[in-house]
Amino acid sequence: MRFSETTQAFYDEAFEDNAAVDDIPADVREITMEQYQDFYSAINSACRVYVKKDKLVISAPRPGVLCEWDDDNKAWYMSDAAKAQQQAQDIANAVWQRQTLTEEATQKISLLQTKVMIGRALLDNEKQTLNIWLDYIDQLNLVDVSAAPDISWPVKPE
Q: N or C end of the chain, less CB within 10 A?
């Protein structure tokens, strides 16, 4: 069995017979069946196999879908465009989470708000519950979603 760092692909023993002219990467090298199994598993776990001091080694798994492999430094990195995309995604997730938590809190107080709207008196514990949940909603609205993913969310009342 053989392997190419460039293509991250395996080539069987008959690869030269089956290859078109100049179809075979220059860096193809022989590997053991144990290496084949290790490398196959690593590649399918989002790792890269690369040459270090003339030996094939396995990288750490790809940290995220927006990360790319830097062949020169033999490491995962995020481009500036990928970082901006990740930040936009984190902010969108935070907006969604705040909306979901606000909707959940609103559901918790809907019956109490209905009582107030039709003029019914609330019991003292109901007033306290309503105020606690309204305070929570206020805290949610103060969350700076542009700080995502580093957000300290307010604690949900019990």
A: C
CB 2 within 8 A of CB 28: yes
**Which residues of the chain carry a pLDDT beneath 50?**
none
Nearest to 153 by CA among 87, 99, 106, 109: 99
Q: How far is CA 84 from the centre of its chain?
A: 14
Q: List pLDDT tens digits, range 33-58.
A: 999 999 999 999 999 999 999 999 99
Question: Does the pTM of the predicted model rise above 0.90?
Answer: no
